[in-house]
C-alpha cells in the first residue's frame, strides 16, 4: 500500500464519473486513498459551471457553494459504495490544466476523463486531458466514455477496458518506455492479469548496418528480453506475452488496446524531439485507444 493518493479530475460529467470509477477500481487494487478535485474557474461572462449549477458572473458564491456540495456528495457516494476505501473531495480555484498539473506533484496517479463539460463533441480528447498528460509530475490515466464505460452515477459507472484483458505496454528501448514497462508490470501483478509487451521496429534502421532480416528480428527480440529480465525476476507469477513486429507503434498498440484493460506508454520514445513533451504515439493512443491509456513520465 502507498500513501500517495489517486487524484481524479472531477466535474460531475459522464466522462468524470467513468474516470472516478476507474480510479476507485485502481484504489481497490493498490490501497491508495482517492481525492476528487473539482477545479473552479471563475467566469467573467455567463457560462457553464457544472451539472445542476446555474451559470453566473464572478464572484458567484452561490455557484461555488453548489460546486462544493456536488463534489462532497460525489465523494460521499463513492465512499459509501466502496467502504474499504478512503475518498475525499476538494474544490480548487484556477485554470484546470495548471491546477491539476501542480496538484499532480503530490499525487501518485492522476486520472482524467477525456473531456468535461467544456468539451465539444467533435473533439475526441479535451485540451485539459492532453495538456495535463504532457506536463503532469506523476503518471496520468485517460479514460474515455466511448471505450466501453458509461456514466451510471458517481463512483458507480462501468469501468472501461476488458476486466480480464492484459495490461499492454509499448517498449522501444527509450528511458521513457522502460519506466512505462516497470509501471505496467506492477499493475499486471496487482490485478493478477497477463502483461503484453509490444515493440515495433523498422527494417530500414538495420539495412545501413548490414543486418539481414533474421538478424534484425533477433536483435529486437533480445532487446525486449533484456528489458524484461529484471521484472520477470521480481514478478515471476505474471504471464508475459511479447509481440515484436515491423509495423508502426501506433497501429500495434491501437490493435492491442481492443482486448486490453489498460495500455501503458511513455511520454515520448526514441523518435521524440526534446521539445515535445508528449510524443506522437502517446497522442494517438489517448485520442483513439479502445481502452484507458496510462502515460508515464519521470517525476
UniProtKB/TrEMBL annotation:
Residue ranges of every copy of the UspA domain listed in the record? 6-144, 166-297
Per the UniProt record, one Pfam family is: Usp
Superkingdom as given in the UniProt entry: Bacteria
Q: Which SUPFAM superfamilies match?
A: Adenine nucleotide alpha hydrolases-like (SSF52402)
Per the record, the similarity remark reads: Belongs to the universal stress protein A family.
This protein is called what? Answer: Nucleotide-binding universal stress protein, UspA family
